[in-house]
Amino acid sequence: MSERDKPFDPNDPFDASTEDLRLALVTVVIDHMNNHPAFTSLSSEKQFESLFTSICVTVAGVLGSQTADHLGLQRMIAIYLPQAFEIAREISEDGDAQVPTTHAGRRH
Q1: Which pLDDT tens digit goes with each residue over 22-64?
Q2: Three-state SS sequence of the chain
Q3: What is the pTM for the complete model shown?
Q4: Please, is 17 exposed, middle or buried when counting C-beta atoms within 10 Å of its C-beta (0-12, 13-18, 19+)?
Q5: How far is CA 39 from CA 50, 60, 79, in A?
């Protein structure tokens, strides 16, 4: 069983670190989407385009800085993306999709 196929374990350092980073990122994104005047003034279509573009460029920049194999990275993203959607769906169904206002509400 690969690391990605194992169930979430809040005591596993990889899982705990990944969940903390996911929550930190979503908190920053939601705050920007709700409070940045230039973003909130956009139409919903332009907001989606802005969000999608920003996320894609950030993923390419951050992950690309970790490897020179950008083609391999693109393949890895294409392979992992469907699983990421499944994990996001599961998180949402479990009721854990709300952005925490403090770190105390985390599920670790």
Answers
A1: 999 999 999 999 999 999 999 999 999 999 999 999 999 999 9
A2: CCHHHCCCCCCCHHHHHHHHHHHHHHHHHHHHHHHCHHHHCCCHHHHHHHHHHHHHHHHHHHHHCCCCCHHHHHHHHHHHHHHHHHHHHHHHHCCCCCCCCCHHHCCC
A3: 0.72
A4: exposed
A5: 8, 22, 31
